From TrEMBL:
Domain of life per record: Eukaryota
Keywords noted in UniProt: Membrane, Ribonucleoprotein, Ribosomal protein, Transmembrane, Transmembrane helix
The family this protein is said to belong to: Belongs to the bacterial ribosomal protein bL33 family.
GO CC aspect terms: cytoplasm; large ribosomal subunit
Pfam families membership: Ribosomal_L33
Gene Ontology MF terms: structural constituent of ribosome
Organism (species): Hevea brasiliensis
Annotated protein name in UniProt: Large ribosomal subunit protein bL33c
PANTHER family: 54S RIBOSOMAL PROTEIN L39, MITOCHONDRIAL, LARGE RIBOSOMAL SUBUNIT PROTEIN BL33M
Keyword Lipid biosynthesis found: no
HAMAP family the UniProt entry points to: Ribosomal_bL33
GO biological process, one term: translation
Keyword Nucleotide-binding: no
Spans traversing the lipid bilayer: 12-29
Length: 62
């Protein structure tokens, strides 16, 4: 079975970095759906470099 030019599957999600607002450089990697989520993600998660929960904001993967 061969795939034609128009038969490619579209990307439905991408990987993003959640970077610590504490400025430690620590980050989490998360999948983000193109269809469901359009705004930037923000989570309050644990940063082991400062031993506390801080705000993590979305940044593009390099």
């Amino acid at each position: 079975m061969q795939l034609g030019m128009g038969d490619k599957k579209k990307k439905t999600f991408m990987f993003i970095r959640l970077v610590s607002a504490a400025g430690t450089g620590f980050f989490y990697v998360k999948r983000k759906s193109f269809k469901k989520i359009t705004e930037k993600l923000e989570f309050r998660k644990y940063d082991p470099r400062v031993n506390r929960h801080v705000l993590f904001t979305e940044a593009k993967m390099k």
